[in-house]
Specification:
Elements: H1 18-26, H2 30-44, H3 49-57, E1 67-72, H4 81-87, H5 92-102, E2 107-110, H6 120-132, E3 139-141, H7 158-164, E4 169-173, E5 176-181, H8 190-199, E6 205-210, H9 218-221, H10 236-245, E7 250-253, E8 259-264, E9 267-272, E10 290-297, E11 300-307, E12 312-314
Parallel strand pairs: 1-2, 2-3, 5-6, 6-7, 7-9
Antiparallel strand pairs: 1-10, 4-5, 8-9, 10-11, 11-12
Helix pairs in contact: 2-6
The structure holds fe (ii) ion (FE2).
Fe (ii) ion binds at residues 74, 113, 144-146, 211, 255.
Length: 325
């Protein structure tokens, strides 16, 4: 009781949001967290990007060669029970990972949202799955918004980084340069754009992988009246202008759980967000589970969409014109 005050006076308190309270209540003890971290460090070690790239590099490809790689989209099962119950289809991710393994691909690139939230517990489960499914083809990743500590807003990505390494990286294979760019915080910063400007060389055949589409691709990023909800806004214009100026061959993206192709200012953007995540209603008309098999060679790129129902659809080379129904 404060001098002169009523014993029943309530102090002003700041009430944390329900989600924060739940996270605090469910947070593991410090000892359990340390044990988790140790287990995660052990199981993640072989899957670090650097290790996977070293494995890929062990079998060389030359510029005159044609080779294949697989592109697999979002796989997180939905953060909330209701979403999982309504939209999730268990087993799709496993089926697609196994099928992609059976292809003669040099590597698989997963376009982010591997886990529903970037906690050690979720990453442990992710790596245990890859191990159980006997994934042997080099497996590379792009960071998605769900792979950060919280999927919305700007939160840290320390657990992703501790497992995989840098969130922006590039590598060369068979005359091609591949770039994995972090757009998981719904932005591409000026610093990233300067890095991108350096790694995307004029005249070099280049493919860019990133999780969230730039907001300018309105056919995918508008959700009815919610304009641009599905895309990143900060840096979007500069990002697309840079890729057009450098004549990038292809950009592969996820985040929106569907499929689509857009030719925008001379660059082809392919949306492939059907790795196994729930097919929520969105601005995209073609929502189905699939992965891509991409053939890369001196003549360019060609893609086949492998649907979960077993149907294969080649992506036409001609210019794609989209119009809303
Ligand atoms: Fe996402």
């Amino acid at each position: 009781m404060t001098p002169g005050g009523s014993p029943f006076t309530l102090r002003k308190t700041v009430v944390p949001p329900l989600a924060v309270v739940a996270d605090r209540l469910l947070a593991p003890s410090a000892a359990r967290r340390r044990a988790h971290d140790r287990d995660l460090a052990d199981i993640a070690a072989p899957w670090r990007t650097k290790r996977q790239l070293a494995r890929l590099d062990a079998v060389k490809r030359y510029p005159h060669e044609t080779f294949k790689f697989a592109v697999l989209g979002d796989a997180e099962p939905g953060r909330f029970w209701v979403w999982r119950r309504l939209f999730n289809r268990p087993g799709v991710f496993e089926t697609q990972v196994r099928r992609a393994q059976a292809e003669a691909c040099d590597f698989t690139m997963q376009l982010g949202d591997m886990v529903s939230r970037g906690t050690p517990h979720n990453y442990l489960a992710f790596f245990e799955h890859l191990k159980a499914w006997e994934v042997t083809t080099p497996y590379l990743t792009v960071i998605g918004n769900h792979d950060r500590r919280f999927p919305h807003g700007v939160t840290d990505c320390e657990t992703y980084r501790s497992c995989f390494g840098p969130v922006n990286y590039a590598f060369d294979r068979g005359g091609w340069r591949f770039v994995s760019l972090d757009s998981s915080a719904h932005r591409v910063t000026a610093r990233q754009l300067r890095w991108l400007d350096r790694v995307v060389e004029d005249g070099k055949r280049t493919v860019v992988f990133t999780h969230i589409p730039p907001v300018v691709l309105r056919e995918w990023t508008d959700y009815g009246g919610a304009k641009g909800l599905g895309g990143f806004e900060e840096g979007a214009k500069e990002f697309t202008e840079l890729l057009s100026r450098k004549k990038v061959a292809r950009v592969y993206m996820g985040h929106i759980h569907g499929f689509g192709v857009q030719d925008y200012k001379g660059v082809r953007y392919v949306l492939s967000g059907g790795g196994g995540s729930p097919l929520f209603p969105s601005g995209v008309r073609d929502r189905f589970h699939h992965y891509l098999v991409v053939e890369a060679g001196p003549e360019g790129l060609s893609e086949t969409v492998r649907g979960i129902d077993g149907r294969d659809v080649p992506i036409p080379q001609g210019r794609v014109v989209l119009a809303r129904a």
